[in-house]
Design goal:
By secondary structure, the protein is mainly α. The chain has 18 helices and four strands.
């Protein structure tokens, strides 16, 4: 027996020893070599693995940052907050600290870019439809955790925009009737953003939310591998199997898609590296210029706005004024009326009438600021209802009609415009001519209408029959 054969034999023995105590080989087969994915994955299906790659980047770089960061709002001998000074220390004095910090800060924006594109893939191909409802709900929970993780981490550099941004966002909770003021104090740990707030946010950012996030990512992948991946045709490949029980339109995830994902990861890392080395601030969108100034509770920045990935929802908050409440009332009446007219169930009709009446009463009694907070949070939660709102007989946009494609295009344009307006100060006008406020109001209505009217336009849409087997285009 050669030396190589001896090494292979010892390797098999070691693997067998592990398998007797931990299901390593069976896990490898179940989730990689014998997990059959559709043959017709395209460009849009790379963003899930890229999201996992960026998550690893955030965890690893975060660990190294925590080694040198101090969550302390007290002033040092130079009159600079310790937290802010520790970030400057990482950037200037820690060997390689600057690249670690930029990988982490730029990685946060990259994370949301990848996740937004991953979610858009779901809208294109109906990845939220049966039997993947739970996969989608886990994904929405991951998105909410990411938003919380980004918000809590945003305060840690203790810059001007960090401190004042946290103050504004936490103050929004004070608008909630009865419990709002006490809730905002509880979140801050003080009456204003202070050392207690910094330590709370640090604990959530470093320990609490990452643990929940990792659990949700694991649940998301387990649920996905249980029901199988969707594909651009919306065809369930498990319905057509050969005599060995292998899907006719499936191929093993490893090595076929691991190789492709590896290639895309290299391309992504090349683009990501260019940004990190040459434009880590992203023109003031990834790292705001005001955040390079220590937080001063006595000096308000001229314009306070959240980071770009929060701005679409922030724009909805700003658009919710007393006049906008009339638009919301009309929207509630139309949706309630359509529900009553289009259903035969007396219980559903009664429910629609009751919910509409409650909403109209709430619009009249509660301040517009309260509804702005509700809509800002609700506009994210609405994605979780898509599996039940979409009534189309087909899943993929390939076989849906012009109506759905048009509505989805309008939704994307509205979302992008809301994101742009959220970064601008009040009074902004496009090209100096078109006021931003009415544009934000119209885009907010279009955003909400995409979800509110989906049960009807998805049924009205002229669809084509799905194929029996997957196709290549």
């Amino acid at each position: 027996m050669s030396q190589m054969d001896t090494l292979l034999d010892k390797g098999k023995q070691a693997l067998g020893w592990v398998d007797e105590r931990f299901p390593l080989t069976s896990l490898y087969k179940a989730h990689l070599s014998e997990y059959y994915a559709p043959k017709n994955f395209n460009f849009w299906y790379f963003f899930g693995s890229l999201a996992l790659l960026v998550l690893v980047n955030q965890i690893v770089t975060g660990i190294f940052l925590v080694m040198h960061y101090k969550p302390d709002a007290a002033l040092n001998a130079a009159g600079v907050p310790v937290a802010f000074a520790s970030v400057e220390y990482i950037m200037r004095d820690v060997p390689g600290g600057w690249i670690i910090r930029y990988l982490h800060s730029t990685g946060a924006s990259a994370f949301f870019i990848v996740v937004y594109l991953h979610m858009f893939r779901g809208l294109l191909y109906g990845s939220y439809r049966k039997p993947r409802e739970l996969v989608w709900l886990f994904g929405i929970a991951i998105f909410l955790c990411l938003m919380g993780e980004a918000f809590f981490g945003y305060l840690l550099p203790w810059g001007q925009m960090s401190g004042w941004g946290a103050q504004v966002i936490v103050n929004l909770f004070a608008a909630i009737p009865v419990i709002g003021p006490d809730l905002s104090i509880f979140i801050r740990g003080d009456f204003v953003v202070s050392d207690a707030t910094l330590n709370r946010f640090f604990a959530f950012h470093v320990i609490a939310i990452p643990l929940v996030l990792l659990g949700l990512v694991t649940a998301h992948l387990i649920a996905l591998h249980e029901v199988g991946s969707n594909n651009p045709d919306g065809v369930e490949i498990k319905k057509k199997k050969d005599t060995n029980g292998i899907p006719l339109d499936g191929i093993p995830f490893h090595p076929y898609y691991t190789v492709k994902d590896g290639f895309v990861a290299v391309v992504f890392l090349m683009v990501f590296s260019v940004v990190v080395f040459f434009a880590p601030e992203g023109g003031g969108y990834f790292l705001e210029y005001n955040n390079f100034v220590p937080y001063d509770a006595l000096q308000t920045p001229p314009h306070i706005a959240p980071v770009w990935y929060f701005t679409p929802f922030y724009s909805i908050l700003r658009a919710t004024t007393s006049n906008f409440m009339w638009v919301l009332g009309a929207l509630a009446l139309i949706v309630g009326g359509l529900t009553v007219v289009s259903t035969k169930s007396k219980n559903v009709k009664a429910l629609a009438v009751g919910v509409t009446a409650i909403l109209l009463a709430g619009f009249a009694l509660l301040d517009a600021k309260v509804w702005g907070v509700v809509l800002m949070g609700g506009s994210v939660m609405l994605f979780g209802l898509l599996p039940w709102l979409d009534q189309s007989p087909v899943k993929s946009v390939r076989y849906k009609g012009v109506l759905y494609a048009s509505v989805l295009s309008v939704f994307v344009v509205a979302f992008v415009l809301l994101g742009i307006l959220g970064t601008k100060a009040p009074g902004y006008a496009f090209f100096g001519l078109i006021p931003g406020e009415p544009v934000a109001a119209v885009c907010s209505v279009l955003y909400l209408a995409f979800f509110a009217f989906m049960p009807w336009y998805s049924r009205m849409d002229a669809t084509k029959p799905e194929p029996e087997r997957v196709t290549w285009k």
